[in-house]
């Protein structure tokens, strides 16, 4: 979940709670104020009626034309003692003037006359419909909530995006950052926390660049320095193998040693090539077709495929053009052709399909390979003779440096390596 979505969700939830509590308090406060005003009016009206009753004056009509009504009747001393002398309540009463039932506020008061008799005075006055008030408050609360939510979210989204713009800039910079490449500078900010975060990210990137340069330099120097001793060792072994006094067992051991040195030399050349690719030393880039390179090297590999009875099928729908150095393109094609042979089965098949958008090589295989690690250096699911574990790493490195992508999949007993544009 994005930070802004989480922020909006939590703000909305907080607003629901706050506005609900506010609506409850608002309703209670409003009803208390209304009841207080109505009760004061009832008290004045009841006091006037009691004074007229106690003084023996003529009582007014039970309905005075203002929808106020009253009832006055005598009660027993026991009744007076068992009930509070003054109470308030809400109830629906019949209003004579309107000839209908309406909500009213009721005041009941018990008082004693001069002749020690007790009378109960019940005074009614119409009041608001509280259920309607509740509905109105609910509707206006919902309306207020929606308006406030929209306004607050718009303001928060604007403030959020404006203030967190340096963070999004840093995230975008980190997403596009590539070690060993020329990267755009990180935009500075006046916000202290984001400036410190930018400085930490730049420091980490500089450390990565320094380590990367050290690694490239070490690999390049080590691979280059190893070439001469390896060549000397191979030449001496070849001279020894020409000795006529060697026994058959000694010759076999020398041949094995020579083959090991050949593998080591080939691995060393691959490492040196990887280092050169990472250093960007192949700068002679121009447009070329992989179809032509495919046919150029297929003649050499057809004999190798025939040795293991591997059938070859080619489907060329169109030309697949790339912007690449000639030598890197040749390495790309030959490594894929070699991989299809080394990791194939006897009496298997190789299918090559070329379109204007992809270059695809499929070969039969027994088990699916680990797609997450297959392009890592020296990774081999199963050790194959003649394989250094660097072929697919070279393919991946060449593709990345030339804006291509290579994808692996396994379907119906066939390994597939597909090269396409990024």
Question: What would you note in describing this structure?
Answer:
With 422 residues, the chain is an alpha+beta fold. The protein folds into 3 domains: 3-150, Beta-Lactamase; 192-278, Helix Hairpins, CATH 1.10.287; 286-421, Histidine kinase-like ATPase, C-terminal domain (Heat Shock Protein 90, 2-Layer Sandwich). The chain has 9 helices and 11 strands. The strands form 3 sheets. Strands 6-8-9-11-10 form a 5-stranded mixed sheet, with helices on one face. The protein has a 4-stranded antiparallel sheet with strand order 1-4-3-2. The chain has a two-stranded antiparallel ribbon with strand order 5-7. Strand 2 (86-95) and strand 3 (100-112) form a beta hairpin. Helix 1 packs antiparallel against helix 3, helix 5 packs antiparallel against helix 6 and helix 6 (248-278) packs parallel to helix 9.
- The whole-angstrom Rg is 47 Å
Structural domain tally: 3
CATH architecture of the largest domain: 2-Layer Sandwich
Structural class: alpha+beta
What percent of residues are in strands?
A: 15-25%
Give the number of DSSP strands. 11
Residue stretches low in confidence (pLDDT < 50, at least 5 long) are: none
Would you give the CATH topology of the largest domain?
A: Beta-Lactamase
The largest sheet, given as strand count, sense and whether it forms a barrel, is:
5 strands, mixed
The overall pLDDT, averaged over residues, is 80
Kindly report how far apart the N and C termini lie. 27 Å
Q: How many helices? A: 9
Shape estimate: rod-shaped
CATH uppermost class of the largest domain: Alpha Beta
Order of SSEs: HEHEEEHHHHEHEEHEEHEE
**Percentage of helical residues?**
40-55%
User: Quaternary arrangement of the chains shown?
Assistant: single chain
Sheet with the most strands: spatial strand order: 6-8-9-11-10
């Amino acid at each position: 979940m994005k930070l802004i979505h989480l922020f909006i969700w939590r703000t909305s939830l907080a607003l629901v709670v706050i506005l609900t509590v506010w609506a409850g308090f608002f309703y209670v406060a409003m009803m208390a104020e209304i009841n207080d005003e109505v009760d004061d009016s009832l008290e004045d009206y009841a006091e006037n009626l009691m004074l007229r009753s106690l003084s023996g004056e003529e009582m007014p009509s039970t309905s005075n034309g203002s929808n106020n009504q009253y009832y006055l009747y005598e009660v027993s001393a026991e009744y007076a003692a068992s009930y509070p002398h003054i109470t308030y309540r809400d109830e629906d009463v019949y209003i004579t003037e309107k000839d209908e039932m309406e909500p009213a506020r009721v005041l009941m008061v018990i008082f004693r006359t001069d002749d020690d008799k007790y009378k109960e005075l019940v005074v009614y006055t119409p009041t608001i419909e509280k259920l309607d008030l509740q509905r109105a408050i609910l509707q206006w609360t919902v309306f207020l909530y929606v308006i406030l939510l929209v306004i607050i979210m718009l303001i928060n989204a604007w403030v959020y995006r404006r203030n967190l713009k340096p963070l999004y800039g840093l995230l975008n910079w980190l997403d596009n950052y590539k070690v060993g490449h020329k990267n755009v500078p990180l935009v500075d900010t006046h916000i202290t926390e984001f400036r410190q975060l930018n400085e930490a990210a730049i420091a980490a990137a500089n450390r990565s660049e320094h380590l990367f340069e050290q690694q490239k330099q070490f690999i390049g120097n080590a691979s280059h320095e190893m070439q001469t001793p390896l060549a000397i060792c191979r030449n001496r072994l070849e001279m020894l193998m020409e000795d006529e006094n060697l026994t058959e067992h000694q010759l076999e051991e020398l041949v094995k040693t020579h083959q090991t040195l050949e593998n080591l030399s080939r691995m060393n050349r691959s490492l040196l090539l990887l280092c050169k690719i990472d250093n960007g030393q192949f700068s002679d880039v121009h447009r070329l077709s992989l179809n032509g390179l495919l046919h150029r090297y297929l003649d050499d590999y057809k004999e190798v495929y025939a040795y293991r009875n591997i059938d070859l099928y080619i489907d060329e729908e169109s030309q697949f053009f790339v912007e690449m150095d000639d030598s890197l393109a040749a390495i790309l094609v030959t490594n894929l052709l070699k991989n299809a042979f080394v990791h194939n089965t006897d009496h298997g098949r190789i299918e090559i399909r070329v379109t204007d958008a992809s270059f695809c090589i499929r070969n039969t295989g027994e088990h699916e390979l680990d797609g997450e690690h297959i392009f890592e250096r020296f990774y081999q699911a199963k050790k194959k003779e003649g394989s250094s574990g660097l072929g697919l790493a070279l393919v991946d490195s060449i593709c990345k440096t030339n804006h291509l992508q290579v994808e692996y999949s396994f379907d119906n007993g066939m390994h597939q390596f597909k090269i396409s544009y990024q």
